[in-house]
């Protein structure tokens, strides 16, 4: 089994860092981290964007329907391998 991975697409998202609540930023040994979730849609919106990023929710937050904190939008491009099989 090879350790090389193949790129199958590109996800480019611009996020608003000011929208990340301070309590969602965790200090680690190598820096500060925030868990984010990205959704990729099957079509573009009116601005040509087909993905969005948000602050990840815990299981408890999902169960109690805590509001989603959207951070930004972007685009996803599937890489098509043109090499024959």
User: What's the number of domains?
Assistant: 1
What is the number of helical segments per DSSP (H or I, 4+ residues)?
1
Average pLDDT rating:
90
Q: So what's the overall shape? A: globular
Percentage of helical residues?
under 10%
- The CA-CA distance between the termini, in Å, is 19 Å
Biggest sheet details: 4 strands, antiparallel
What is the CA-atom radius of gyration, in angstroms?
17 Å
> How large is the share of residues in beta strands?
35-45%
Number of extended strands: 6
Question: Can you give me a brief rundown of this structure?
Answer:
The chain has one helix at residues 59-63, and strands spanning 9-13, 26-28, 31-33, 36-40, 51-55, 70-78. By secondary structure, it is mainly β.
What does this structure look like?
This protein is 6% helix and 35% strand. It has one helix and six strands. It has a four-stranded antiparallel beta sheet, with no helix packed on it. The chain has a two-stranded antiparallel sheet with strand order 2-3. It is globular and about 45 Å long. The chain has one domain.
Helices and strands in order, then pairings?
Elements: E1 9-13, E2 26-28, E3 31-33, E4 36-40, E5 51-55, H1 59-63, E6 70-78
Antiparallel strand pairs: 1-6, 2-3, 4-5, 5-6
Q: Which features would summarize this protein structure in a list?
A:
85 residues, 1 helix, 6% helix, 6 strands, four-stranded antiparallel beta sheet, 35% strand, two-stranded antiparallel sheet, single chain, mainly beta
């Amino acid at each position: 089994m090879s350790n090389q991975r193949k790129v199958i697409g590109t996800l480019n998202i611009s996020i608003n860092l000011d929208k990340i609540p301070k309590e969602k930023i965790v200090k680690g040994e190598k820096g500060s981290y925030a868990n984010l979730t990205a959704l990729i849609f099957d079509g573009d919106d009116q601005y040509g964007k087909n993905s969005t990023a948000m602050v990840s929710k815990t299981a408890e937050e999902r169960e109690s329907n805590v509001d989603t904190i959207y951070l930004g939008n972007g685009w996803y491009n599937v890489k098509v391998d043109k090499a024959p099989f």
